[in-house]
Amino acid sequence: MFKTILYPIDHSRESREAADTVKNLVKTYGSRLVILSVVESAEEGEGSSDMTSPEAIAQLLQEAKALFSADGIDADLIERAGKPAFVICDVADELTAGLIIMGCRGIGLTEEGAAESVTNRVINLSPCPVLIVP
User: Fold this and answer.
1) How far is it, in rounded angstroms, from Cα 116 to Cα 121?
2) Domains of the chain (ranges plus CATH)?
3) pTM of the model
4) 3-state SS class at 35
5) Helices 118-125 and 84-95, interaxial angle, to 10°?
6) CA nearest neighbour of 100 among 108, 113, 91
7) Rounded to the nearest 5°, which phi and psi values hold at 131?
């Protein structure tokens, strides 16, 4: 059903907590797992310096790959630069992903936050179903 699952990650707790759901679905459907992280430019990064360093992103991706490898899951890694929501949707389209699984920080609970939320933008722009893990 889900040949390819895209798992966008960052340094957030919510992103890490989505990993168990990703593991379960990848194993259940025998899916290909692609882990994506986006390097944000300083002006796009809303103060999140961890996501503006290519070295930090590379380390994050390797740690995520090791986490899944420990459960016998091979994962492909992709690092891209740009605005996270747009990059996530572009990569999902390129891969013909069957599902995007991502954590949610809950910043979209306010009117201003909803418009700026990466999660909300991905939901609205995605070329495939999106599973949000709270």
Assistant:
1) 8
2) 4-133 (3.40.50.620)
3) 0.88
4) strand
5) 30
6) 91
7) -105, 120
